[in-house]
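STRUCTURE:
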């Protein structure tokens, strides 16, 4: 039980959970959405999309550059996690790291020519996946936790 009190262990657990859930949902999306989309509610639907860029297909086709930048950012965050003392910050950083690693896993190990699998379509926002959601939520947790405790994170 003492292990779960360590911010590094909490961040690692959060990252591992995000990666696992992300990869399972992407595998299910590829298997079930290849030929059709699934309407959920209003414009919200599940629709398979391969994104070789980053947010909203920015830098499409620059997979090698994107991957190197992502790996450097992840390495920096992992290094910084060693200094964290707050559980909230550990969860936030773990979510961001897990989401980033989930998308890197797509780029490096799936046979999609370096593309990330996106499948959540809202009609008003770019198609995204659970790794993207984890990154955004993790950043919000980091900002909220650091402001509420009056701590600077950098």
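SEQUENCE:
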């Amino acid at each position: 039980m003492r292990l779960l009190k360590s911010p590094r262990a909490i961040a690692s657990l959060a990252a591992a959970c995000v990666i696992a859930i992300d990869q399972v949902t992407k595998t299910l999306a590829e298997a079930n959405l290849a030929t059709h989309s699934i309407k959920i509610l209003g414009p919200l639907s599940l629709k398979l999309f391969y994104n070789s860029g980053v947010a909203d297909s920015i830098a499409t086709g620059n997979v090698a550059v994107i991957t190197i930048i992502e790996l450097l950012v992840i390495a920096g965050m992992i290094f910084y996690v060693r200094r964290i003392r707050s559980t909230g910050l550990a969860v936030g950083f773990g979510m961001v790291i897990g989401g980033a690693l989930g998308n890197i896993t797509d780029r490096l190990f799936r046979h999609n020519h370096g593309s990330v699998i996106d499948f959540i379509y809202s009609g008003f926002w770019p198609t995204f996946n659970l790794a993207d959601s984890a990154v955004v939520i993790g950043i919000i947790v980091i900002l909220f936790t650091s402001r509420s405790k009056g701590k600077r994170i950098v």
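REMARK: The chain has a mean pLDDT of 86.
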